């Protein structure tokens, strides 16, 4: 059997932490091999070793049967490896061809031969079914086409083994299926693909073989056809996890949050929210979904007072709050889980107890006569650590010592424990392990069933479908459709996410 990749007994340590422990990972030539595992399982470290970004402390690496020392990405590229990162590395003002050949420009008579570059891109685009216009500027492309440009960048450098890190994170369902078709065409040409993803449904759909990592070690490698999604989760987490749509009673409470024809501008002064109207009732979860960058972040910012409203009204529990300051809005009944926990969710240099105190530092019983009751704060923080299963030595542990998923749990513990009538939840499970997601989803449903009004923003369509009572789809700063999660399809939502109404979609007026 011919292997494109053979990693034998790879161990990689960072100080006393072994990120990879005696890992053996072999990928056959001409297959799509999925590498999955929870956050911190060692996937990224292993791929960085493969691509020459890290040097292993122990183990042997072979490419196409030849033992190699992968001492740098330059060596990896020379050996036919290419890596497409989750966050694209494109220059918006340059054309597709200029981005693809950046740093290795084709020249003629000492000048860049743009015509030859465009012709080469057109040739590769046609050969691999990528369908990209080499003369268009990247700033004018959709996210799905940008990803094709990133793939062409590695193809033009001669890659025959392609590593894709979370390739569908910013794609619509239709764009994801287009990507899978392209990947399958690669393997038909004898190329090899390593596919890293948290979306297990996609792993089951596109891959030939799956390797699962847990705690830096290989749990198992199996043909995908011999696995179910539940078995795959059990291999990753070590127990059964339920991600079925949560049962719920119908929501019939009064309106808690009301946005009417809200408009706002971005940091450059350009329109970013356009006539957005949203209503959220008590005991209801309204989901907001869209390709990242279509106004979801700005929507959260205007509701929480972090971005000014240029037109329209916002009311919370009957109080007009457009352009109110964040403290006033919080006192009016808002709990906010921000999308970027490090920038706005935690003080990483402070303890867990201090972070739990935030927003309560002027309120009894947390404070008495202007003095913080630290014994009470630490007692309550300890209870929340246990309730939310935060992995930390104690409530005195600094947040910066926690993993990303446990940092997120600190934010959730603080905000969910305030018993506010309205919860603004932005990306609740970003960076959180699959096992922890189940608990977070249960807590969101508990908040809903206790009467809270919830606006849930997530880039994970499956998360929205499982939790929301109604789904609003955003495109270009507008609400372009509302769908019922009980009857909608991913295709219907995907069309709306791409700015196209399907025949089934209820397009918002």
TrEMBL record:
The keyword Nucleus does not apply. It holds the Pfam family ABC_tran. GO terms for cellular component: plasma membrane. CDD domains: ABC_Carb_Monos_I, ABC_Carb_Monos_II. Residues 5-240, 257-501 form the ABC transporter domain. It comes from the Bacteria. The keyword Calcium does not apply. It is a peripheral membrane protein. Keywords: ATP-binding, Cell membrane, Membrane, Nucleotide-binding, Repeat, Sugar transport, Translocase, Transport. It is found in: Cell membrane. GO terms for molecular function: ATP binding; ATP hydrolysis activity. SUPFAM superfamilies: P-loop containing nucleoside triphosphate hydrolases. Belongs to the ABC transporter superfamily. This is ATP-binding cassette domain-containing protein.
């Amino acid at each position: 059997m011919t292997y494109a990749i053979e990693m034998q007994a790879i161990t990689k340590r960072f100080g006393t932490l072994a990120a990879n422990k005696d890992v053996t990972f072999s990928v056959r030539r001409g297959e799509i091999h999925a590498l999955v595992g929870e956050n911190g399982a060692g996937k990224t470290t292993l791929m960085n070793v493969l691509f020459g970004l890290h040097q292993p402390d122990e183990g042997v690496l072979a490419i196409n049967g030849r033992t190699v020392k992968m001492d740098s990405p330059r060596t990896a590229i020379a050996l036919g490896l290419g890596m497409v990162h989750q966050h694209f590395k494109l220059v918006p003002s340059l054309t597709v061809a200029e981005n693809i050949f950046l740093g290795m420009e084709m020249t003629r008579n000492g000048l860049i031969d743009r015509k030859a570059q465009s012709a080469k891109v057109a040739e590769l685009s046609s050969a691999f079914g990528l369908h990209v216009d080499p003369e268009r500027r990247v700033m004018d492309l959709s996210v799905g086409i940008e990803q094709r440009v990133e793939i062409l960048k590695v193809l033009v450098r001669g890659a025959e083994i392609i590593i894709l890190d979370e390739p569908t994170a910013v794609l619509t369902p239709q764009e994801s299926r287009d990507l899978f078709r392209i990947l399958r065409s690669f393997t038909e040409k004898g190329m090899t693909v390593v596919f890293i993803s948290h979306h297990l449904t996609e792993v089951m759909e596109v891959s030939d073989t799956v390797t699962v990592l847990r705690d830096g070690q290989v749990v198992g490698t199996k043909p995908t056809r011999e696995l179910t999604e539940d078995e795959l989760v059990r291999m990753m987490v070590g127990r059964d996890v339920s991600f079925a749509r949560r049962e719920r009673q119908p929501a019939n409470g009064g309106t808690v949050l009301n946005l009417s024809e809200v408009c706002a501008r971005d940091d450059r002064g350009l329109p970013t929210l356009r006539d957005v109207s949203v209503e959220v009732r008590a005991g209801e979860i309204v989901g907001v979904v869209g390709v990242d960058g279509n106004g979801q972040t700005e929507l959260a910012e205007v509701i929480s007072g972090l971005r000014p409203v240029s037109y329209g009204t916002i009311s919370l529990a009957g109080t007009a709050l457009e352009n109110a300051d964040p403290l006033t809005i919080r006192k009016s009944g808002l709990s906010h889980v921000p999308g970027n926990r490090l920038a706005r969710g935690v003080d990483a240099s402070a303890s867990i107890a201090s972070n739990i105190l935030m927003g309560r530092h002027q309120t009894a019983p947390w404070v008495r006569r202007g003095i913080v009751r630290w014994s009470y704060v630490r007692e309550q923080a300890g209870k929340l650590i246990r309730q939310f299963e935060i992995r930390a030595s104690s409530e005195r542990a600094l947040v910066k010592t926690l993993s990303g998923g446990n940092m997120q749990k600190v934010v959730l513990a603080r905000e969910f424990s305030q018993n506010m009538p309205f919860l603004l939840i932005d990306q609740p499970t970003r960076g959180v392990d699959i096992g922890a997601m189940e608990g977070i989803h249960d807590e969101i449903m508990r908040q809903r069933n206790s009467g809270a009004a919830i606006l849930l923003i997530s880039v994970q369509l499956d998360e929205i479908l499982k939790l929301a009572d109604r789904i609003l789809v955003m495109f270009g700063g507008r609400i372009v459709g509302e769908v019922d999660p009980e009857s909608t399809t991913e295709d219907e939502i995907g069309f709306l996410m791409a700015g196209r109404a399907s025949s089934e979609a209820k397009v918002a007026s």
